[in-house]
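FIELD: query
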Amino acid sequence: MIEKRRDDEIEGALDDEMELEIDEAVAASEDDGTIAPSGLGKFPLVPLREIVIFPEMVAPLKVGRDKSVAAIRAAAKAEGWLALVTQREAEQEDVDDVTQLHAMGTLAKIAQVVNLADGTLRAVVQGQKRIIVHNLDTSGDALMVEVEIVEAPEVDGVEIEALMKSVQAQVETYVTSGAPVPPEAAVAAKNISDPGLLADMTAYTPDMTTEQRQELLEIIDVTERLHYVSAFLARQIEILEIKGKIQSDVRTEMDKSQREYFLREQLKAIQRELGEDDPQQAEANELREKVEAADMPRRRTSCAKRLRRRTCQKR
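FIELD: result
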């Protein structure tokens, strides 16, 4: 069976040299003077599986499917603009109808393309704008998609400011509660002045599912987007607090068991030193403890109390 090549992999565990290379490539791409398209347009398409790219997000994608490789090459030969849209069915190998794609994706700029030894490509892309998908053209070597480019709305006001401060505080609580994100995330959130970008930043957390990321991407209204991420963060903080309580209870119980074991061992050592570790006496003590623990009727427990003197006899 031939292994299918996937093009939905965001390369993780990048070393310092590769991160520097990506940063330099992105900086060069930003300084090339290219103006981002607007309105309606047609662009090469890379369908993504279980990945959602957002505006301003930088990602190294490993691309393998033939039409996706052709799309990367076509975009790189032009001005570098590429449509990235997530598939509805992750396991579907070939995309040949627009209904197999989510309704909204991201227009990205290619910053770097590297040919890999296994025949795939690594493309460093930076998201630019949200796009609404209209039509899909499958006739050529590369998939082409007709889209409407969504301009980021400019918003301000007291409600937006309050929502931003609330989300920034939630991000800080989320991080300090043990979220699987770098500690610098809280600082980064505080330094973001764009409310839309602040909302989109939440998509970077591993706790957010692909479905939740797609829902977030499709929310154009910034106020609604901030409400969405606020509810998500509140839920995750609650989960982390419950998880922390459970772990604390487990640790407390373990500590209690360890203390009890230590005390029992100390008692045994003292009994040995005092010569009170006679096997018969130990057996009698054990029987007495079991009888008393069983809460037997009073007439029978009197027998247990005499076990110390070994005077209890069968009738």
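FIELD: remark
Strands lie at 9-10, 40-48, 58-63, 81-86, 104-115, 121-137, 144-150.
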